[in-house]
Amino acid sequence: MNKTVVNSWNEWDPLRHVIVGRADNCHIPPEEPALDAKVPEDSDMRGQWGKRPQETIDRANELLDTFAAQLQARGIRVDRPVPIDHSQPVTTPDFHTGSQFGCMPPRDVLLTVGPEILEATMSYRCRWFEYLNYRPLLQRYWEEDPNFRHEAAPKPRLTDADYHPDYLSEKIGVEKRLKWAEEKHFVTTEEEPLFDAADVLRFGRDLVVQHGFTTNLKGIEWLRRHFPDHRVHAVNFPGDPYPIHIDATFTPLRPGLILNNPQRRLPKDQRGMFEKNGWEIVDAAQPAHNAPPPLCYSSVWLSMNVLVLDPKTVCVEKSEVYQAEQMDKLGMEVVEVELRDAYAFGGGLHCCTADVYREGGCEDYFP
Ligand code: ARG
C-alpha cells in the first residue's frame, strides 16, 4: 500500500483520523515522586491507590465509545489502543512501582508532528511503559504508510535524582507552590530530558512547549534538536500551582486565535511571537463546575480542553455551557460531547485523543 496515513502539523486543520483512548482496567497508581507533587493537596485521591472502581471504568468507556462513534459519523477514522495489563508493576534497574496508569489519555504519550509520531519520554514511573498500549496501532501505520516515521524519545531513568525533594512533603500550600511556579522551580530536576507529549502544542513550523512538572528544560532542548526544522518555544504559566500538560491552559482554535486560562495567563514577555503576527489571545470562559468530579487529577479547567475538528468546528463537553457559548460567539460551530464522567481518567476531549491525520501541510504562522 502506498498512502499517507500519518500527517498532522497543527491543532486545528480538518481532522480525518484520530486515536481515542480506553478506560479498561485503569489504575490509580501508588505514590511516586512526580505524581504526588501533582495530586492537589485537598484531593480525594491522596493516599489511595489500586484499580479504579469498575462502574466508573464502564461509564467512562461508554462515553469514550459514544465520542468515537460521533467522530466516525462525521467521516473521521477512529482507532482505539489495545490495553496492556495496567495492574502489572513496573520494574527497571533504576526503580520499582506497584502498578501502571492506563491507556488514557493518549495525548500525553503520542506527539504527532507531520509524518512522525513520537513516543514521549514521560515523567511518571507508572507511565513508563504506557506506549505499549499504542504499539499495535503504530505498527499498523508503519505497514500502511511508507513515509510514517515512528520515533521514541530516550527512555528516562527516573531515579530520585529526577525529582526535587522539597516537592515531596505532604503539605506545601498553594501560596508556596505559586511562588515556586513563578520561579520555575518545578518537581522535576534537570537530571535528564523529560517531556510528556501533552505539554506540546503544534503551530506548523513552531512548537510551543510548557515548562513545568512533566517537561523540563532538557526535554525542551531534546525536542529542539529532534525537530531541527522547527522553532521550539518554551512557555510557562505562573498562575498554575500544578503545571502539567498545556491543554487546559492554552488552546489554539484556528490561525490567529488562542484561548488562555484566565488564572494562568501567558506572561507578557512570552507573548511577542503572537503579538507580532496579529494573533489574539483571549480569556477562556469560566468552567460550569466549581469542583472536579471524584478521583480526578485535573482541575475544573478541562472546560477549555476542547477538540478542534476544523477551523470552524469544535467539540465541547456537554455540561460546559459557558465554554460552548463563548465558542459560538467566536464563530465556531459547537459539537456537544458528553465526557465529564471520564475526566477522572486523565482529562477531557483533547487529552483523550491523539491526532493521526489532519489535512494541510507545515505552514509558517509566525514569519
Ligand atoms: N493540568 C490540567 C489541569 O488540571 C489538566 C491537563 C490534562 N491534560 C492532559 N493532556 N492530560 O488544569
Topology:
Blueprint: E1 15-20, E2 27-28, H1 33-38, E3 50-51, H2 54-73, E4 77-79, E5 90-91, E6 96-97, E7 110-113, E8 116-119, H3 135-144, E9 149-152, H4 174-182, E10 200-203, E11 206-210, H5 217-226, E12 231-235, E13 250-254, E14 257-260, H6 272-276, E15 280-283, E16 307-310, E17 313-317, H7 321-329, E18 333-337, E19 353-358
Parallel strand pairs: 1-4, 8-9, 11-12, 14-15, 17-18
Antiparallel strand pairs: 1-19, 2-3, 5-6, 7-8, 10-11, 13-14, 16-17
The chain binds arginine (ARG).
Please provide a written account of the structure:
The chain has seven helices and 19 strands. The protein is globular and about 45 Å long. The strands form seven sheets. It has a three-stranded mixed β-sheet with strand order 4-1-19, covered by helices on one side. The two termini are 37 Å apart. The protein has helices at 33-38, 54-73, 135-144, 174-182, 217-226, 272-276, 321-329, and strands spanning 15-20, 27-28, 50-51, 77-79, 90-91, 96-97, 110-113, 116-119, 149-152, 200-203, 206-210, 231-235, 250-254, 257-260, 280-283, 307-310, 313-317, 333-337, 353-358. The chain has one domain (15-358): L-arginine/glycine Amidinotransferase, Chain A, CATH 3.75.10.10. β11, α5 (217-226) and β12 (231-235) form a beta-alpha-beta unit. With 367 residues, it is α/β, with parallel strands linked by helices. Bound molecules: arginine.
